[in-house]
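Problem 12. The chain below contains 517 residues. Write out its predicted structure in token notation.
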Amino acid sequence: MPKSDEQELSLKWSRRISLRHRILAVNIFAIAILAGSILYLDSFRSRLTQARVEQAATEVTMIARSLSQVPDHLHQPLLVRLGRDSGARLRIYNLDGEKQADSWEGAEPTYQLPDPAEEPWPRWFARALDNGFDAIVGAPQPPLLKLPEDDRLQAWPEAIEAHDRTGTTTALRRAPEGTAFVTAAAPIESDGRAVLLLSDNATEIRRVVRAERLTLVIILVATITVSVLLSRFLARTVAGPLRRLALAAHRVRLGRSREVDVPRLPERRDEIGLLARALHDMTQSLRQRIDATEAFAADVTHELKNPLASLRSAVDSLERTQDPALQAQLLDIVRQDVNRLDRLVVDIADTSRVDAELSRARFEPVDLGALIDVMLPGWEQRAQDGQRVAFARPHGGSAVVMGDESRLARLIDNLVDNALSFSPPDGLVTIRATRSKDEMLLSVEDEGPGVPEDRRQAIFSRFHSVRPDEDFGRHSGLGLAIAKAIAEGHGGSIEVGDRPDGRPGAWFQLRLPVGQS
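Solution.
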């Protein structure tokens, strides 16, 4: 993998966290943002409280102005009616601090101040939750309400301030059960002979906040449930298959490839499915390579045994014979076996390097016409018994392919060498290079016995040959196998058949993708 891709795909802070936990963490993060909205209901409650305080100031001002327009003996019945309509408690104090009128006298109280110790457990639990949320967000707490034993003007600082300033004042306290207790005071007459005090236990603020909080909690619980289910779904469809693939790859690495069934997941068309199929195909390719390597090793062992056995027999016989003619014959056998072993070792080493070298090779434009021109004198020197090599030269620059020049030279040399080995005396080997659309077609024809149809695939196998009376010192049976490997490494192919003109002989055609000239 290129270094830039490695840096892009690398993880810093989360590399030790499993994918399952990352999926859950991302979903929980979104839920945490929603949970934060429950905590920030404090700002909503503050706005409601402020609105109630302003409303109390407006109400006390309007009532005070109304009371200044009626006689004193009508204040009490008017306070009772206004208190019932507003839901608040209205009291009038004179300058001496005495209470002159009270909306609760002769009427039902408009609000209550329950004792928390006497409340049932559901209310106690709800109040504990409220206090817990307030503690988490650090909500400011107004001073606790302390009801005066002697209900006088001096017990209410806001009323004294309203009298001194001859204007409306407000105050906010906290009732024993935690609700907002709002008071507002205003002078009744311009000469300041009396003060009106409005008080209210604003329990509706807590009810509204609790209702909103309950709604958000329900949404939060539903979101958590859906998020957990989605996380499990993603973990099962993403993390689970990845874990199975990783385990299968680990078992393949341990050398148990034949025991491992890498899932292909054919029903999945996403990236996980692509990865599964890629790993499956890679494992199959690895198995094939292992099988090919094992088969190649077995073939090498078998091919080396024959010349070694012949060489051992000739050497042993040399020690026991005194006949000069027989000794010369045995030395010739030794020489042939040594040549055979040398050819085998060279071709085996070349075969084992082909795939590795092609995987690392950097392909460049190669003109096959110019390459064959360079190689042609060597083939003519190699030809025996009047054999000839003819090359139908293409136009300059028209036979260019992308590849490794040395390997392509070895491929063509093996095809021509194979044709020369089967050509009869005075036989002609013909080489042609033509272009067909996006392919270069290179054909090699000889005048030999040809290749039987049932052997045309087998001749490309390693150590396989159809030569009767083969000279093993010159041919190892690897030439066509090497040629096929090089062709496939260049994205091409080789096929064999009868000559197109109907004459006796073999016809090999090489197909290679066309490069840029």
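Discussion. The chain has a mean pLDDT of 79. Students who got a different answer should revisit the alignment rule from Section 12.3.
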